[in-house]
Amino acid sequence: GLCCPGRDPACLSLGWRPDGSHGPCYCDAECARTLDCCHDHAETCPVVPCVVSQWSVWSGCAEPCKTTYRVRRRHVIQEPRNGGEACPPLEERAGCVEYWTRQGAECKQSLVPALITTGGFGKARKKRAAADGSERAGYCVEFQLMAITPGCLHSHHSYTRWMQYLREGHTVCVECQHPALDATSLHCYGDGSGSKKNQLLHWQAVGNPQCKGTWKRIRQLDTCSCPSVHSFLFI
Questions:
Q1: d(CA 181, CA 164)
Q2: Which CATH number fits domain 50-107: 1.10.150.120, 2.20.100.10, 2.40.50.180, 3.40.190.170?
Q3: Residue 54 contacts by C-beta under 8 Å, 6 or more apart in sequence?
Q4: Residue 204: beta bridge partners?
Q5: pLDDT digits (tens, 9 = 90+) for 178-234
Q6: Can you give the pTM of this predicted structure?
Q7: HSE (side-chain half, CA atoms, 13 Å) at 94
């Protein structure tokens, strides 16, 4: 009738051992490992593994307007017994960003992923802006590229060739000019304004959704000074 959890030398009986001999034998959960169980231990104390429920649905982000996490949970249906397999983790977290507040307002621009294209597109853009008299003074932001997806190197179309010059660790210039320059905030979406020092910000290349990554904002300048292959535009 004994059936003890863990290692318990006091969980002792007198009976038949698995090798057929008769004498002291144990009924704790460790006896199977030490090979000194009573002969009926497996039937009297069957191993019962932990059983857990299915995962819940993912929660929303813990906080809006910042890089944080979401959570899903599960609960224990059956606790393990008699040396059964222990319960797995009951909570998982995953990275998460929400771009809208709980009240439905848009978050600060630093968190919105920057959409970029080659700086060569800017010449035609400036001509159009000058023609309708709507051009406003822009600015340039320097970033250090931190992570780049392999999809940037697999761009074979002529209009995506510029993405192959993106390299981790390089400094790039991204120009904010009309019409990407928002008339109210006087910023481009994703320019990192308001971000903390060394905060990882996200960008994505226009024309190839497989080309994206992260960068850190270095500084804002009046004009860009990077080589043409490392000069880009906010969209």
A1: 26
A2: 2.20.100.10
A3: 74
A4: 115, 212
A5: 888 877 778 888 888 877 788 888 888 887 888 889 999 999 998 888 888 888 888
A6: 0.52
A7: 8
Rounded Cα distance, 77 and 92, in Å: 18
Type of residue found at 62: A
Q: Which of 199, 198, 205, 210 has its CA nearest to residue 174?
A: 205
Question: What letters, b where the CB count within 10 A reaches 16 and e where it falls short, cover 182-220?
Answer: eeeeebbbbbbbebeeeeebbbbbbebeebbbbbbbeee
Structure tokens at 116: 């970029």
- Gyration radius of the chain over CA positions: 31
Q: Which residue is it, tokens 């857990």?
A: 52
